[in-house]
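lol ok so funny story. i was supposed to be doing the assay writeup but got distracted and ended up predicting the structure for this chain instead. priorities right. anyway since i did it might as well share w the group, maybe its usefull for someone
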Amino acid sequence: MDLPAIDVGVIPEKFEDVKVEGPSFPCDFFGTEIVHKIAQALLPGLASACVDNTTESVILEDGPDTEVSDHPFDIISDFVDDFASSKRNLFSRVSGWLLSERREDKIDDFVQEMEINSFWLLDRRAAIAQTLLKNADFKNTFHCNMNFSSAEELDEHRSNCSFRSMNCMNEGCNSSFCAAHMEKHDSVCPFKIIPCEQQCSENLMRREMDRHCITVCPMKLVNCPFYSIGCQSTVHHCMVEQHQSDNLDSHFLCVLQVTHKDVSVEDLKQRVEQLKELLSPSELAEAKNVRSLTSAVKNLESKLGPLEVTVPKTVSEENTETSDSVAQIPVEAES
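and the output, tada:
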């Protein structure tokens, strides 16, 4: 596709002559982030104008009651949108290859075509973005408005200007920003080395933090290995062995409750004491999960023999004991 053989630039407006007393040396520093953002927005804006002219479509998104923002980027974005809708007959040479696609796809394709052909280079768009920003940044939030009477004063100011451009010092990061935003960037830079959020001893890049915390961090929270059979504890990964050692009795009891479902807890607790006496240190070291501890318990129980169970009393036996106790109560003779 042949692009329109025109050059896009800023047409300076004619201003009335203003008398300036003495020489003026203005600072020309801008917020690099917003300049780049505006420069990036100019190309899609131009592409929108091309596409809308080709398809002869009208896109109306804002109504008369739309709230007006005073942010420079919003002001310039509105300006670009107005440009795209008002220059509908500017690029009539664009061919009909765009007509069969959705508007958003057409715009993306046109932007890509202009970038491939270096139709409007980023540095030229950045120069225009600075001019637009200077005229839209009414609060001087994104550019320096300082003027000086000598070049020496300007040079001294530029070395400390809060809008001077800086590069991130974190290894691997290629971001650039104005000095005023250094702390803000540093607080979110994905390449900054920071301590582990879960307070382990590791220091790692911020962008690797999530993966570290859920995979290899020794301080990540995990369920007890015996969670599935009753131990509902959640412990740090590095403390699992200590937890198992401290809660050996309860883990034994959990295993026995699975294998002896109809036995009372009191009888199982007695069995736990018997098992602990027979459990060797090597068997204890290997019993780190449900399967291994269950196997160890079965082996030990085969040595101990059948489990002694306290037989619960029947209702008739309880009634008999009650009757006997009532019969033994002396009855006073009637007077």
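The two ends are 128 Å apart (CA to CA). The CA atoms of residues 90 and 200 lie 62 Å apart.
back to the writeup now i swear
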